[in-house]
Structures are given as structure tokens and as C-alpha cells.
Write a structure and sequence with these properties.
alpha+beta; Pnp Oxidase, Chain A; 2 domains; six-stranded antiparallel barrel; 3 helices; 30% strand
């Protein structure tokens, strides 16, 4: 009786481990886009033919984009963020950024992918210092900067 019970427990443990391995591999491979404030994993879509386009495709104003970051455990993390352009560069903002998971990923590995429409753009996220952030946000010298980090999305 004891041998049968031990065999059953061993089978159950191996089944659970096998299921966890399958779910982990699926999370690495299968894309799941973020929905509004709910984060996703890898982004779906096809890689854009032109990786450094004229950012006027955004229509000149602020627009929502999806940002995919890399985690240390290989499952990608994606979020919805506000983006804008100055004509030459593409920027992504982040409110109260220091406590956010995705910005920690960017601090560790600055390679990101952006999804705009159905196309993916491989970029390097460069966090701007206060002087550059002040210029991009249009905050005059002497006024307090808002609690918003700004990342310039440079080509890789």
C-alpha cells in the first residue's frame, strides 16, 4: 500500500512539474498584448520593414503605443504607454516610473520593442536626464518638473 501511495505522489509531482514547464515555455513563445492598464507578455505583430520611419505616422500628437521589455527570466513584459514625437525622435513617457516593473526591466536591458498599429519596431530606450527631459516636456527653467520619466526610443 505504501509503495502504491509513493508511486502516485511521484506521478503527481512529475505531472505538476511537467505542466509548469509547458506553461513557462508557452509564456515565452505565445504573444499576449496588453489591454489598457493590464500588462501583457510578448507583443503580436510583424516586424516593420522600415525600422527607422518618419514618425509623422503618429499624426503629430500623443498616441498610445505598446512597449515590450525583456525580463531576467525570459518571459517578456509589455505595457501600454503614451508616446509622442518631435518630428525626429520618438518619446515614451512614464509617470511615477521608479516603482514600475517595466522601467526596471529597461534599466537592466534597454532593448525594447514597440507596437504601433500592427507593426513592431526594435528600439533602444534611453532615459533622459533632467535637462533633456525639461526641453522635451517644454517645462521652463525654474519650474518644477513633473514626476514623469521620458525615454527616447532610438534605433538599435
Amino acid at each position: 500500500m505504501k509503495k502504491v501511495l509513493m508511486r502516485g505522489l511521484k506521478f503527481l509531482a512529475l505531472s505538476v512539474v511537467g505542466l509548469l514547464v509547458i506553461l513557462y515555455i508557452a509564456a515565452i513563445v505565445v504573444p499576449y498584448d496588453p489591454v489598457e492598464r493590464q500588462p501583457g507578455i510578448g507583443l503580436s505583430g510583424s516586424l516593420a520593414e522600415v525600422q527607422n520611419p518618419d514618425w509623422s505616422i503618429l499624426g503629430g500628437g500623443r498616441t498610445m503605443v505598446w512597449v515590450e521589455t525583456r525580463t531576467w527570466y525570459l518571459i517578456r513584459h509589455s505595457i501600454t504607454a503614451m508616446a509622442w514625437t518631435d518630428g525626429e525622435h520618438l518619446y515614451v513617457g512614464c509617470r511615477s516610473c521608479d516603482g514600475k516593473y517595466w522601467s526596471g526591466n529597461v534599466r537592466r536591458d534597454d532593448r525594447v520593442r514597440l507596437k504601433i498599429g500592427d507593426e513592431l519596431y526594435e528600439r533602444q530606450a534611453v532615459r533622459l536626464n533632467d535637462a533633456d527631459r525639461r526641453a522635451v516636456l517644454g517645462v521652463p527653467e525654474g519650474e518644477r518638473l513633473p514626476d514623469r520619466a521620458v525615454f527616447r526610443m532610438d534605433p538599435r
